[in-house]
Amino acid sequence: MKHIASTAALALTALIGVGAATPAAAQRNQVEVGTLTCSGQGGVGYIIGSKKTFSCRFASARDGYRERYTAVITKYGLDVGITGPTTLVWTVLAAERRLTPRALAGNYVGASADASIIVGGGANALVGGSRRSFTLQPFSVQGQTGLNLAVGVSGLRLR
After folding, report:
1. Across-strand partners of 35?
2. Which of 22, 25, 27, 157 has the fewest Cβ atoms surrounding its Cβ within 10 A?
3. pTM for this entry
4. Nearest to 147 by CA among 75, 82, 85
5. Contact 154, 137 (CB under 8 A)
6. Mapping DSSP to helix (H, G, I), strand (E, B) and coil, where does residue 8 land?
7. Greatest CA separation for the chain
């Protein structure tokens, strides 16, 4: 267990270190437009990847406007273990404050790392959406339960 926890901590530190170099460039000329919160059931990591479905809601920072989305997150890389219910929360950044309806829909890609020993958390750095114009705040807050370790590349399809 200690080995899994220390491996997860190293992976998370590496992800944060790599991501720390990119936020300034990714966020340049971007403003906070709201928050995207996604919740989903547990799942099983299949060593080289996983695929999970989430229900999401976007809340505008500007006027409280809300939209619902469905997300599928696919991870490629090391993904071993079982997770229970998971919640992810991102700050959404965009080039403009005004968004058209369903503007967040699209494909996102980035790096991720998470670990759980009973309870756990993770970090996800994602960029994409319509015309790749959105950044989901480089490191989302993720809460989950279970026993797992996942490090790799993540893809998010938001519909």
Report:
1. 59, 91
2. 25
3. 0.74
4. 82
5. no
6. helix
7. 48
